[in-house]
Amino acid sequence: MIIFKVSDLTTIPRNAINPKSGQAASFLTLGDIVSGDEIISDTWDLKEIDDTVYEIDCKKVTKGVDNVDIGANPSAEEAEEALEEGQSTVIDVVDAFRLNFLGDEASGSRLFTTKKEYMGQLKTYMKKVVEKMKESGADESAIKKFQTGAQAYYTKQIAPNFKDYDFYVGESMDTDGMVVLLNYREDGITPFITIWKHGLTQMKV
User: Would you tell me how many other CB atoms lie within 10 Å of the CB of residue 18?
Assistant: First the structure.
């Protein structure tokens, strides 16, 4: 596998056309270097935070029957009223990359109920990412920067808002792989996911 670097990524708008070939532009699909599951592609806007994570704003869409896209993240009440029989509301990134909720969706209970439980998984995952970085030839300074950045992001962003996060894994359901974090922006309507930058690899399509 090739460790994904920021320099490898050029954000391309959806439905873009390659000006040289006149064909649809190709997109980068990014996967988890541990599980090999697809996680995201650069058809979404990846916002890099402190060289540590990417935050990606998502949309709620309606799936089923005519696959109508309800677009601009309506409130839960509006979404429920808009649904017809056979339709369901999904989060676009979760649905597109077949991410699986860790817990019981019916009750909303999460696999990680405490910070200690989540940290146990995260530490194991981070060790695997470091191993992959070493295999790819990353130097000690790069590894140290990754570890320091991850600790800072957890302390400043994840820990204080832990109760607000939902947890997802890729299609293989490998809980030793990357756990994707899902939360909502300050408006309470816009979902966004958080993924670990150094845990991504460019997938071969």
Answer: 11
Q: What is the rounded distance in angstroms from the CA atom of residue 159 to the CA atom of residue 44?
A: 26
Check residue 85 and give its pLDDT: 63
Residues 6+ apart with CB under 8 A from 1: 33, 36, 132, 201
Element (H, E) at 125: helix 115-135
Q: To which H or E segment does residue 96 belong? A: helix 92-96
Tell me the two tokens of residue 64.
Answer: 């089923």
Q: What is the pLDDT of residue 57?
A: 97
With H, G, I as helix, E, B as strand and everything else as coil, classify residue 179. coil
CA atoms within 13 A on the CB side of 3: 18
Relative to beta strand 53-57, strand 191-196 is antiparallel
- Sheet holding 100-101: strands in order across? 47-49, 53-57, 191-196, 180-184, 166-169, 100-101
Q: Which two tokens stand for residue 75?
A: 């409130």
Specify the pTM.
0.77
Which residues of the chain fall below pLDDT 50?
1-25, 68, 70, 76, 79
**Angstrom distance (rounded) from CA 1 to CA 37:** 12
Contact 113, 103 (CB under 8 A): no
Residue recorded with tokens 């460019």: 202
Q: Give, rounded to a whole angstrom, the gap between the first and last alpha carbons of the chain.
A: 13
